[in-house]
Amino acid sequence: MCDKPFFYNPDIDTKIAGLYDLQHTIGRGHYAVVKQARHVFTGEKIAVKVIDKTKLDNVSRDHLFQEVVCMKLVQHPNVVRLYVVIDTPTKLYLVLELGDGGDLYDYITSHGDGLSEKVAKRYFRQIVTAIAYCHKLRVVHRDLKPENVVLFEKLGLVKLTDFGFSNKFIPGTNLDTACGSLAYSAPEILLGDSYDAPKVDIWSLGVILYMLVSGNLPFQETNDSETLTKIMDCDYSMPSHLSPDCKRLISRLLIRDPQKRAHLDDILQDDWLKLDDNDLPIELFSVPLISREHLSFEDHMEILSKMAEGQLASVDEIQSTLDRNEYNHIAATYYLLAERKLKRNYIEEYKRLASQSQLIEKRKQEQQKCINCVFGLSENAKQVQNVENNITPKSLVNSVMGSSTATPTSRILNSLGSSNVEDRVRRFSMILEDEEEEEESKGSPIAPTSFDRYISGINESAKMVNDSDALHR
């Protein structure tokens, strides 16, 4: 199954030295190391998983093959992106998206008794969304655990990784391979029976949720034998500090009979997991998976021109690589530049809408002062206050843009309060400013554009509205 390389070039190790600057080791396994690296052409930080093929037995080779196949198939904002696969006679290099916050296990344990339900809910919702997407593509992960969830802390995102035990499944047909980690494995896997593939992921989700909100594993004991007994008996203690809704969701996932476990659609609609009024939708700040459809024609051509000017490849060669959906250095460079471009487009949109929200709030406050001064909080003033309270960023944006012409980003943002938008805008601005400083220090051939002009534009807009208000008062 794995006799043929994914693609082969005898000089590829030499080429890696010029294309990817391998740095320090950030992870290590039985036959692989993960290194932080820099994509030389763009300056972007990436992760490179270096697999020593000489240490692989047949089973490990099959797992590796499945990992690559499934990661190519499952392309989702909450799954670590695979950019390049480079195969050599002795090593396999997987060039991957790099998180900035380590893995979720270390993050949870650093918080002692677990995360707040608000934070846990945000991360768990993303994990469930990713798994739901995997299952729609008939891919089961089979090794879900916090160690295999990468934290992108600055963005407030988590992403699944390590698809080494993943496999394709056919609905209604059971799988037989026993795999995964004991503490997160479903009882039916530990029994050695054939099993309904999606249901084992549901069980693991229950273990992850329990750990998120408690800081502990539900079935972990001093030795594997006792842990196994606890799992088979589904014997665990529910933390008393959890909300009733959270307890109920955990109990819907950690059920001995796999057929009685909640379905993914039910989990996503669960009362505990529903978005609160002040929550931001996941899709708002998850940079979408990049394809040419996400970019304007102008942005697409600009990226092609920059790559051609940098003598990476001709425009025709780049276009051909994208058309064939190849996983090589040319495609990786294109997508890294496209992701950078899309981030900046989103920031520009966020700042524009945030400035509108700020102006709404300022106008409401000034008008309220005027009303209080004249009416002294009379009934008339209260009625006016009620009218003013109904003014929202959504109503303003709809009146300015029109719902039919709003962009996807605008439609999502229309329903949000200004404080949430402003907070995320500041967060993204800091991230991109950090990236710009790093690029300037490295002298990257493609330096990101500063956002000072956006801030200046917001301030100028605020001044114009203030002047307009003064004329009407």
UniProtKB/TrEMBL annotation:
The keyword Magnesium applies. ATP binds at residue 49. Its EC number is 2.7.11.1. It comes from the Eukaryota. It is found in: Nucleus. InterPro entries: Kinase-like_dom_sf (IPR011009), Prot_kinase_dom (IPR000719), Protein_kinase_ATP_BS (IPR017441), Ser/Thr_kinase_AS (IPR008271). It catalyses: L-threonyl-[protein] + ATP = O-phospho-L-threonyl-[protein] + ADP + H(+); L-seryl-[protein] + ATP = O-phospho-L-seryl-[protein] + ADP + H(+). Residues 433-452 are annotated as: Disordered. GO terms for cellular component: cytoplasm; nucleus. Its cofactor is Mg(2+). GO terms for molecular function: ATP binding; metal ion binding; protein serine/threonine kinase activity. CDD domains: STKc_SNRK, UBA_SNRK. Keywords: ATP-binding, Kinase, Magnesium, Metal-binding, Methylation, Nucleotide-binding, Nucleus, Phosphoprotein, Serine/threonine-protein kinase, Transferase. May play a role in hematopoietic cell proliferation or differentiation. Potential mediator of neuronal apoptosis. Belongs to the protein kinase superfamily. CAMK Ser/Thr protein kinase family. This is SNF-related serine/threonine-protein kinase. It comes from Schistosoma margrebowiei.
